[in-house]
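Q: I'm building a small set of examples for a reading group on sequence design. Run inverse folding on the following structure and report the sequence directly after it, with nothing in between.
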């Protein structure tokens, strides 16, 4: 898929993988009102402190659409890892764009072991991310589940996922090579009809006959003006805007707006971040630590964030009149903001 030089797929076959991060609906219990694993926090903390990615398994059974946000977050963590390495190299007399040799990395590690770990990770290893929630298809369709895709980024990430969960990565141009993984007759990646494809799908780049290049990288837009795409263990919620420019003039700190949740209005205050929000007050803001233009935070600052009460998830559930609304049903809610 590259006009000149080897494709990202070809390069990945020659590079060791540093970690496999699995977000899978086969792990954990099935659904309920509980909160999700803190995948974003765990990945960010690991890479920030270790300098490199580590393998991990996380359950997404209750809310597979959270993978749309998590894919972007993992990509941002990778980009931060790369930028931190470049900044360090530049500050210590190295060319930030240099292709690091093993000798150079050993030299760096003698000065700063964590930065050396970043140097060994970036440009020398690939990170595989498996995101799986493959709904069964009708037998007449001849498939054993929704098709997997392999999406490659220039930063060394490979996402193996149903296409739905790659939509923001594609929309933002992070995935520059995309392949459809054949469900049947795929050269031995799995036998026809295999029901646990996610257990082997990260080997797809080693089976050329399993991959079909996808030229059209476009994705459909979301239906609702705002969707809930992530809720962390503290109940803080992320909303993704279909048309972020529609909210530019609305999101002025200090204003009071109406958040419409499935037709039910609720007053919220526009803030700047969580720390400067009023305790107990539903607040929305563009998180200064998030560069994604479509993401708007909805949070309620609490005196005891681990109490499980008084947070944004509870606020949403009360507004729709169902205090035990399952996470999987949150993605069905339609939201909008009004002056």
């Amino acid at each position: 898929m590259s006009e000149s030089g080897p494709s990202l797929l070809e390069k990945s076959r020659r590079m060791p993988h540093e970690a496999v991060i699995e977000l899978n609906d086969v792990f954990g219990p099935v659904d309920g009102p509980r909160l999700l694993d803190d995948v974003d926090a765990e990945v960010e903390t690991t890479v920030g402190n270790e300098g490199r990615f580590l393998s991990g398994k996380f359950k997404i059974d209750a809310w597979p659409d959270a993978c749309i946000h998590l894919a972007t977050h993992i990509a941002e963590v990778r980009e931060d890892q790369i930028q931190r390495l470049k900044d360090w190299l530049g500050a210590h007399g190295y060319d930030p764009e240099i292709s690091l040799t093993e000798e150079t990395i050993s030299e760096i590690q003698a000065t700063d072991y964590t930065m050396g770990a970043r140097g060994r990770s970036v440009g020398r290893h690939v990170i595989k991310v498996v995101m799986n929630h493959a709904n069964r298809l009708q037998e007449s369709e001849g498939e054993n589940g929704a098709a997997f895709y392999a999406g490659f980024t220039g930063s060394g990430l490979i996402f193996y996922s149903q296409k739905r969960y790659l939509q923001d990565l594609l929309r933002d141009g992070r995935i520059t090579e995309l392949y459809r993984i054949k469900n049947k007759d795929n050269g031995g990646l799995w036998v026809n009809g295999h029901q646990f494809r996610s257990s082997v799908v990260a080997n797809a780049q080693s089976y050329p006959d399993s991959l079909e290049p996808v030229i059209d990288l476009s994705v459909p837009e979301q239906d609702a003006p705002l969707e809930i795409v992530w809720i962390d263990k503290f109940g803080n919620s992320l909303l993704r805007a279909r048309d972020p420019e529609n909210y530019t003039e609305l999101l002025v700190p200090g204003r009071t707006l109406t958040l419409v949740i499935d037709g039910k209005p609720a007053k919220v205050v526009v803030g700047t971040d969580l720390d400067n929000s009023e305790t107990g007050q539903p607040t929305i803001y563009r998180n200064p630590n998030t560069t994604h233009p479509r993401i708007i935070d909805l949070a309620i600052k609490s005196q005891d964030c681990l109490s499980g009460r008084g947070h944004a998830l509870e606020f949403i559930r009360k507004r729709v009149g169902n205090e035990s609304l399952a996470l999987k049903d949150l993605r069905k809610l339609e939201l909008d903001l009004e002056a």
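DSSP finds eight helices and 14 strands in the chain.
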